[in-house]
Structure formats: structure tokens, C-alpha cells
Amino acid sequence: MHRSIYAFVIGYSGKRKVIGGKGLRKGFVGNMEKRNLTVVREFVLLGLPSSAVQQHLLSVLFLCMYLAATLGNMLIIATIGFDSHLHSPMYFFLSNLAFVDICFTSTTVPQMVVNILTGTKTISFAGCLTQLFFFISFVNMDSLLLCVMAYDRYVAICHPLHYTARMNLCLCVQLVAGLWLVTYLHALLHTVLIAQLSFCASNIIHHFFCDLNPLLQLSCSDISFNVMIIFAVGGLLALMPLVCILISYGLIFSTVLKITSTQGKQRAVSTCSCHLSVVVLFYGTAIAVYFSPSSPHMPESDTLSTIMYSMVAPMLNPFIYTLRNRDMKRGLQKMLFKCTVFQQQ
């Protein structure tokens, strides 16, 4: 999804009202004629609007960001797997979040870098739908995992005596499996609906990957049902995790204020600080994409905003958890020390 979807939907709805009955039928006849003439079999990803030199510099920058995000998140997964003290629900969810962030960035960045370096900006219709499917899956999985991690912190702070019983391993595995199922079904729904549309006009996408809104703008079919599904299903999956996170942290802060000792308050806050920082980073950049004013004549601003939550946030998450979490730092030191000793032997 893209933040200009709202402006696009408003324009689309207004256009339907203006042209009315005969005009609407005439428009569909014209679209049918175009459909018989040309059928889009591939798309052109324009990427960031810049000169060739700037694009090569950007490709190096994005490649470095991608490598930093991938290596950092792989380090988190390895640290959690190595240190038995980190085998708890909180770090189980964190390892899944790190895995999703690796997949998230891998969905868009390698394709963009290859397109810039080779000068080939085309992507097949099947490849575009595949990229769309995985992008929707991973961005929703990121959001839902942050929601589950907020619930985990709520149980740990507000109901510490019941934490072991409530957040057992079986429940954690079931939660993650359920989240994967929901995100895949949601992504599959949008992908199938897009596959049913006809693309018979322009095949130029003003973006660096196949996002939902640019594809809808290129379609010459009636997209009213697609728009309805975006608002009904997509809106639910976008708002529900954020509302649950806000409620969880509202209850957490209410419980923290009731703690009398300063040390107890600091301990409770420290267990949430890393996760809260990641939530602010992810949703702050996502809100900047979806709800800030957008101009249809400035697609580069949309592209840059998308980069913030799809590339910058996954890159910074490992630094937040390794620099601000004592357990993670201790586990990382143990693992690096063990690797050093093993190499010396």
C-alpha cells in the first residue's frame, strides 16, 4: 500500500461521478479497444528520479544499508540461538522479527540495485506480482509481531506471576504460525485481485518496486472492488496492531506508576525501552508515508518516504536491540568470545 492511495481513490471516485452513465460506458468501450490492441507483459520500474551518476551512488548506499540490515538481523538470530539465557518468549519473538526484517529488505533492495547497475529496469508481470505478494506479507508480519511483543511486555509487567503460564512455548509458536497464515492470506487476496485486472495502457511504475497503488493506477479495469478490499481488510490489519500496542503500553505505564520503588520502575521501563523504540521507528515512518500530505506530481517524495520504513527501520532495529539491551549485549559478547577462542584453537 502507498500513502497516495487515498488521493488516488478520491480522484477515482470523483472521476466516476463526473463522467456518469454514457460517459462511463464509453470509457469502458475505449478501454476494451486498448485491451485488444496491447497487453502489458512487463513493467518498467523508474526508481528514484535522478541522474545516472546519482543512481549509481544511491545503489551503493542502498546496498550498504541492505548488508547492514541483513548482517545485523542475522547477528540477532545467532545470538539468541547461541545463548540459552535468551530462550524466552520475548527473544523468540525478536528472532522472528529479525528474520522478517531480512526478508522485508530482500524483497525490494536487491532487485532495485540490480536494475540500477545493469540499466535494465523492467520486471515481468509474474515477477511484479511475486514482489507485491511478499512485500505485503512482510510489512504486515512486521506490524503484527510488534503487536504480539507489546502483549508479551504487558503480561511480563502487569501479570508477572502468570507470565510463565500465559506465555508458554506452545502458545508462542501458535501465535507466530497464526500470524504467518493471516499475512499470507491477506497478501494472496490482494495479489489475486491484481492478477484479475487488465493492464493495457502505460507500463511505467514511478517507484523502485511493485507496490499496490502504482499498479492500480496503471490498470484499465474497474478497480472499485480492489479499493474496497484495501480499506476493509487492509485498514483492519493496519489499525488493529497499532491500537493493541497503544492499549498494552497504556496499561503498562499505568502499572509502572503504581510501583513505589524507583529501582522497580527503572527495571520495568528498561524491559520495554527497546521494543518501544522499534515501535516508534516503524510506525512513525509508516504514518509519515500513509497520512502526510502527498502530491500526485511528486512521486519522489512517496518513494523516499517508503524507503524510510522499508529500509531504514529494519537496518536500525539490530542497533537498537544490541546497544540498549543488556541481555543481548551480554549474549553477543559471549558468542563473539566463543568464536574467537574457537578460531585460536
Q: What can be said about the biggest beta sheet? A: 3 strands, mixed
Distance from N terminus to C terminus (CA atoms, Å) equals 52 Å
- What's the alpha carbon Rg, rounded to whole Å? 23 Å
SSE pattern = HEHHEHHHEHHHHH
Report the mean per-residue pLDDT as an integer: 79
The number of E-state strands comes to 3
* Strand order, largest beta sheet: 2-1-3
> What portion of residues belong to β-strands?
under 5%
Structural class estimated from helices and strands = mainly alpha
Task: List segments where confidence is low: pLDDT < 50 over at least 5 consecutive residues.
Answer: 1-37, 294-298
- Helix content bin: over 70%
* Secondary structure tally, helices: 11
Question: What global shape is seen?
Answer: globular
What labels describe this entry?
globular; 11 helices; mainly alpha; 345 residues; 3 strands; 80% helix
Care to describe what's here?
With 345 residues, the protein is mainly alpha-helical. Helix content is 80%, strand content 3%. It has 11 helices and 3 strands. It has a 3-stranded mixed sheet with strand order 2-1-3. Helix 2 runs antiparallel to helix 3, helix 2 crosses helix 11 and helix 6 packs antiparallel against helix 8. The longest helix has 35 residues. The protein is globular and about 65 Å long. The protein starts with a helix and ends with a helix.
